Structure formats: structure tokens, C-alpha cells
Amino acid sequence: MGNIGLGTAAIGRPIYINIRHEKPREDLSLQEFRENGMGILDDAYDNGVRFFDASPGYGLAESLLIEWLGQKNDPDIIVATKWGLSYAADFDINAVVHEIKEHSLEKLNEQWEFSRKLLPNLKIYQIHSATLETGVLDNIAILQRLHEIKKEYKITIGLTTTGVNQVEVLRKAVNIEIENEPLFSLFQSTYNIMEQSVLQLKENFLNTNRQLILKESMANGRLMPSTSFKGHKSLYRYITKLADKYNVGADAVAIRFCIDSFPDAITLSGASTAEQLESNLAAKTFKLQKEEIELLSTYKIDPILYWGERKQLSWQ
Prior knowledge:
Elements: E1 3-7, H1 9-12, H2 30-46, E2 51-53, H3 61-72, E3 78-83, E4 85-87, E5 99-101, H4 105-115, E6 122-127, H5 140-153, E7 156-161, H6 166-174, E8 177-178, E9 181-182, E10 186-190, E11 211-215, H7 233-246, H8 250-261, E12 266-269, H9 274-281, H10 290-297, H11 303-311
Parallel strand pairs: 1-2, 1-12, 2-3, 3-6, 6-7, 7-10, 10-11, 11-12
Antiparallel strand pairs: 4-5, 8-9
Helix pairs in contact: 2-3, 7-8
């Protein structure tokens, strides 16, 4: 029940926009960090995960996967990666700038040259955080280059969305055609108990060849019961009640909500430890009741409030 993939941001760089329950170790060497990342990839694989999502913006993620794929030599492993975001913190957890977005043809070609080393397991290539503001969906040279990659390497072209206007970006992207065929057939968007805006596009993914990937199912840690967000007390009580009922963690309840909302989608785990991964994967051991899904759905918040709150989160 439920298809869960591993997002590799947390194993590729030491900190992320998130609410952490443990402080990142400042004395962790790069070698130890690499070894931990390889260990998580192995743990995921041993627990049946065959879908891995990466990006140049995730620090070591792509290079870890390249090395790991060589060891596994398994054609069933599917890798998705992206272009448009670069990692800038150089593994300094106190860095001011952690990532840089650049949606240019030059950046696409530069990052593709490295990302293509993930072939033949690389099946999906995405624009990282496509927005209307960068104009990437109106850049004919970029769209044509993506079409060339799609045809030459038989790769699915997709994009990821973040922010208040996710739905607007998705609506625009599904209608883009190059040489009389849709360019994008995979869409990775934020969806969780709090941010349900993409639900209004559900019909666009039913009985079509469009694939949906759900990210940030934990709302960057905000769905783990916390005293930091007093406005979500009622939700936390209900998540805790469901977690107790199904003998799982609150994280598994949050992930299960995504799986039950979009059964054909891939929901990403962002685990950075073996314990987190095991807890996340427990979402596959149960199924929420219809009335439980409906009640959880009532806890959605306005996207403007959701993304405003997210902007207040720190890199940690």
C-alpha cells in the first residue's frame, strides 16, 4: 500500500529548511557525512524503496547516488534529478547563502553534463522550483533543449513547484507543447495536511500519463507535534490520536494522508537517519479510514499563510 520514494536533500547537505528535533553535529566530517548518506541509501533499498529524487542543489546527493548505483547495478532503481538550483554553502552550517537559483540555458547544460552520469537509472529530469517569476516556462530555448534531452535519452521531463502559486504554475506547464506533444509529464509539488492546494488538480492526473510526486509531506517538520506552533494544537492532538491508534509515529500519519489522497503518486520521505526512514516507511503498514482522511483534510490552511509560515523557518 502506497509508493514511497526517498528525497535526498537531507543526506546530501547537512542542513535544510526544517524544524529539527536534534541539533546537527558541527564536528561531523565530510567523510562521515558521505558514509551516513550511503548507509541511508542502502537502508532505503533494503526496505524496498526503488525511487530516489536528487538535485545539484542537494550538495553531495548526485555524487553519492552515482557511486551507490555503481555498487547496486540494479535496473529497477529509478532516479529523478533536477536542474536550476546550485548548492552554495560548502557544508558550512553557518553559511548565509545555502542555494542559488538560476533558470538559464547555460545552467541547464552545465548541470546536465554532471547529472547524465546517473544514466541509465536516471529516468526523470525536472526543472527545480519552476516559477512564473523566472520566466523558465516561457523560455523557448530551454524548453526545446529539454525536449532534445527527452528524445535523445528517452527521459521523462518534469518540474517541481514551491510557493503560493503552485497551482498556477502547474496549469501553465501541463499545456506546454514542443513539436505538437506535451513536454512535461511529471509534476513534483508540495502537498500535505496543511497545504492541499494541488488537490484541485486531481482530475488532471486521473487516467492520464501524467505522474505526480508529492514532496514536503511533513510540512518541513511542522506536522510533528510541537509547542512552537500553538495554532496547530488541535491538529497535533488528532495526529497523535491516529498515531496511537495505528501504533506508528506522527510522521507516518502525515505521509499516509498523502498516499491516501493520491494513491497513484509517489510520496517522498526526506529521512536523514535510519530511525527516521523506518518511521516514515511505517506509513505503508496501515490505511486511514475515509472519515479520518476527511477530518485531517479540514486542517488545511490558506496557502498564503502556509508559505508565509514556511518562510519564517530557519536552515537547521
